[in-house]
């Protein structure tokens, strides 16, 4: 016999193990990121900038699914640390451009060890890791494309 409230049990939620897993993974990153004086979200921003060199705020926010209310104080902190420089675009002064400083670019070398440390920490078979990656991004794609549906 099914309980009318089965749908509310934690064991029946996809979101709960994803939430716990994300929280634990971020916790595992913390000691490595402390050495770089970065939070996890700052690290994600830095990885994006290491790939691209610079970005405007809107593009950065879209790529990382972060709103300007989250990004602005985060970028101010990164600028205070000397890792990024923020300036208004010469073409459109409403657009804020974020650029790595030489210090921020140099931090990339120190961050190189983090992915390997995390692979060891997670200890997933490469095939399982690839499958998990694919499923998480598939799910994320569905959620981002379907923003607002069912709400």
Write up this protein.
By secondary structure, the chain is mainly alpha-helical. It has a domain at 13-111: Winged helix-like DNA-binding domain superfamily/Winged helix DNA-binding domain (Arc Repressor Mutant, subunit A), CATH 1.10.10. The protein contains seven helices and three strands. It has a three-stranded antiparallel beta sheet. Strand 2 and strand 3 (96-100) form a beta hairpin. Helix 1 (15-34) packs across helix 6 (113-122). The chain is globular and about 60 Å long. The model has no long low-confidence stretch (mean pLDDT 91).
The counted number of beta strands is 3
Stated plainly, the CATH topology of the domain at 13-111 is called Arc Repressor Mutant, subunit A
Q: What's the CATH architecture of the domain at 13-111?
A: Orthogonal Bundle
- Average pLDDT metric: 91
Helix content: 55-70%
Q: Which percent range describes the beta-strand content? A: 5-15%
CATH superfamily of the domain at 13-111: Winged helix-like DNA-binding domain superfamily/Winged helix DNA-binding domain
| Weakly predicted, low-confidence segments | none
Give helix and strand order, one letter per element, not per position: HHEHHEEHHH
Q: Label the structural class.
A: mainly alpha
Helix count, DSSP H or I runs of 4 or more residues: 7
Largest sheet: 3 strands, antiparallel
CATH C-level category of the domain at 13-111: Mainly Alpha
Estimated radius of gyration: 19 Å
Distance between the termini: 30 Å
Gross geometry: globular
Walk across the major sheet and give the strand order: 1-3-2
């Amino acid at each position: 016999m099914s309980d009318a409230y089965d749908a509310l049990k934690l064991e029946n939620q996809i979101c709960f193990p994803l939430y716990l897993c994300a929280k634990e993974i971020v916790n595992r990153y913390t000691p490595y990121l402390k050495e770089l004086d970065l939070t996890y979200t700052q690290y994600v921003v830095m990885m994006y900038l290491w790939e691209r060199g610079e970005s405007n705020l809107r593009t950065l926010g879209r790529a990382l699914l972060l709103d300007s209310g989250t990004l602005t104080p985060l970028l101010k902190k990164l600028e205070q640390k000397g890792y990024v420089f923020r300036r208004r675009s010469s073409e459109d002064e409403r657009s804020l451009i974020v650029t790595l400083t030489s210090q921020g670019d140099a931090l990339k070398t120190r961050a190189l060890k983090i992915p390997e440390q995390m692979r060891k920490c997670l200890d997933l078979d490469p095939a399982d890791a690839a499958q998990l990656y694919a499923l998480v991004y598939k799910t994320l794609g569905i959620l981002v494309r379907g923003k607002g549906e069912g709400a």
